[in-house]
Amino acid sequence: MEVTMMQQFGVIGLSVMGKNLALNIRNHGFSVAGFSIDKPEVDALAKYEDDKLKPTYSWEEFINSLEKPRKMLIMIRAGKPVDMTLEKLTELLEPGDIVIDGGNSNFNDTNRRFKKLEEKGIHFIGMGVSGGEEGALNGPALMPGGDKEAYDKVSPILESIAAKTEEGVPCVAYIGPEASGHYVKMVHNGMEYGIMQIICEVYDVLRTVGNCTNEQMSEFFEKWDEGQLHSYLTEITSKVLKQRDDLADGYIVDKILNVASYKGTGNWMLEDAIKLGCPITVIAEAVLARFASKATLRDGCMPEFKGKVDLNQLITKLANAYYLASAVSYAQGFQQLSMAAKEYGWNLHYPAIAQTWEAGCIIRSSMLKDIENAFNQDADLPNLFKDKYFNDIANKYTTDLEEIVKLAVEAGIPIPTLGAAYSYLKTIFNPKLPQNLLQGQRDYFGAHTYYRNDRDGVYHMEWYTEK
Ligand SMILES: NC(=O)C1=CN([C@@H]2O[C@H](COP(=O)(O)OP(=O)(O)OC[C@H]3O[C@@H](n4cnc5c(N)ncnc54)[C@H](OP(=O)(O)O)[C@@H]3O)[C@@H](O)[C@H]2O)C=CC1
Ligand SMILES: O=C(CO)[C@H](O)[C@H](O)COP(=O)(O)O
After folding, report:
1. What residues make up the catalytic site (predicted)?
2. What is the CATH code for 436-467?
3. 300: pLDDT confidence band, cut at 50, 70 and 90?
4. Atom 8 (ligand 2): residue with closest C-alpha?
5. Is 215 an annotated catalytic residue?
6. Mean pLDDT of the chain
7. Is 188 labelled as part of a ligand binding site?
8. Which of 117, 126, 156, 204 is in Cβ range 3.0-4.6 Å of 182 for a Cys bridge?
9. Is pLDDT at 216 greater than 70 in this prediction?
């Protein structure tokens, strides 16, 4: 009698991410079934079929191939497709089954779906996944949130497929209840937007003020990647800059249209920052810079630097400015996480979150170890720059950031994130902000009241006599 082997895990959606995650799971010794509504995607997976990898061609075949309680990952386009998939799954699943949504879903959607599936006894995990195509296959960073009980049942698979830190720790940690996992991924992506835009501005200063060639810039980023600026984004920037065009002469970076696209996770972070009142200025500028790249009139004069600089000094200052501005992007991300945790009642463990990002993901960098250390020393750190290491780098590098900002202004180069990082640092360490005047204005026109800096209580000034 033929015995049908049941699969330990299932993956729905076999595009770049889903297919590679299915292969990663199989490569780690777990049996996996794959399904997509798109038959060619299943056919592509079928090329790897073996006793641990089963392509399936219908919802029923997929569901019936899974061991109970069923454990599965949805890896499809975020938004309506996820709702449609969950609707189909609720017809077929049983209480106790576990569904993970690994796409970049909006955390508000995840909260809604979590509650809806909970009513049916189905466990729902909203899980951020980072690492792109390559990470999905060889080790992504995973940010699961939802039922802890359900997480414990899938954690052996997740820990096994995740990237590992230098110390061998899997880049996956249970984040917390409800949509906290997708929230953390959203913040990851916001910081990613921030650091990517910072790098673009560094590139702009290098090419305009430093008059550097693509090959030179590529070498600088390569060199930086060997030091404290070591990060995935530094590394790939070096590679992007030196890539030759495959359709014409020259470098591909000079042919790529300079209009930024986005799928919107950074935008969502900004939306929630506004709701929470969180000053994520660098990330906000990075989101807006993508919009601005579409809105530009393109008919003004090109940035031009007429002064003289010592290239070696420029490189050193730029490296320091890049490092410090990246620290601001991370600091703002963690600030939003702590404000969200309070607002939504989540007990987030910041060292574990930093550790999850140390390998496998797009924002991995050597700075994340310093962030992990900072939160290990003080779990309630109100701002990363309160930590000694980050306070020291702010003291050490703010002058260089300031000089880069001045050079960029002199050359007419827009520096929304470098400028925002500078202003943020000048704000958080400033005991003499000018918002006393703003409070006076508000009280003048709207009787909005103000606090005083010399005595307790709430005050209102009779600014003028009624006519
Ligand atoms: N690409 C990346 O680097 C990363 C992506 N992600 C996230 O992972 C998820 C998957 O990403 P990726 O692999 O790039 O693929 P896409 O985001 O391009 O989504 C394509 C997949 O979604 C499926 N799909 C679309 N509509 C439906 C529907 N109505 N019902 C069922 N399936 C549907 C597609 O099937 P069909 O071909 O039939 O349309 C295909 O399998 C997304 O949420 C993405 O944001 C997360 C981290 C990194
Ligand atoms: O999640 C990701 C990386 O971490 C995805 O690549 C995402 O699409 C990036 O965001 P955007 O498309 O808005 O640039």
Report:
1. 185 (proton acceptor), 192 (proton donor)
2. 1.20.5.320
3. confident
4. 263
5. no
6. 97
7. yes
8. 126
9. yes
Give 354-366 pLDDT, tens digit per residue: 999 999 999 999 9
**For ligand 2, atom 4, which residue shows the shortest CA distance?**
130
Pocket flag, ligand 2, residue 197 (CB < 6 Å)? no
> What CATH architecture is 185-428?
Orthogonal Bundle (1.10)
User: What is d(CA 8, CA 4) in angstroms, rounded to the nearest whole number?
Assistant: 13
**Does ligand 2 come within 6 angstroms of the Cβ of 133?**
no
Q: Which residue owns the Cα nearest ligand 1 atom 19?
A: 77
* Ligand 2 site, residue 255, Cβ cutoff 6 A: no
Q: CA–CA separation, 81 vs 269, rounded Å?
A: 22
Q: Count of CB atoms within 10 A of residue 236's CB? A: 15
Using a cut of 0.90, tell me whether the model's pTM lies above it.
yes
Two structure tokens written together for 286: 């990075």
Is the preceding peptide bond at 414 cis, omega within 30 degrees of 0? no
Find out whether 155 is annotated in a ligand binding site. Answer: no
| 185 has catalytic annotation | yes
**Superfamily of structural domain 9-178:** NAD(P)-binding Rossmann-like Domain (3.40.50.720)
| Encoded amino acid at 98, one letter | I
Quick one: which atom of ligand 2 is closest to the CA of 266? 13
Q: Chain-centre distance of CA 417, in angstroms?
A: 16
Domain ranges across the chain = 9-178, 185-428, 436-467
Residue 285 to residues 214, 295, 333, 349, 414: CA-CA distances in angstroms?
26, 14, 13, 27, 11
Q: Which long-range contacts (CB under 8 A, 24 or more apart) does 120-123 make?
A: 120/90, 120/93, 120/95, 121/94, 121/95, 121/96, 122/89, 122/90, 122/93, 122/95, 122/96, 122/97, 122/98, 123/96, 123/97, 123/98, 123/99, 123/147, 123/149, 123/150
Task: Phi first, then psi: give them for residue 376, nearest 5 degrees.
Answer: -70, -35
Q: How far is CA 43 from the centre of its chain?
A: 32
Q: Confirm or deny that 130 is annotated as ligand binding.
A: yes
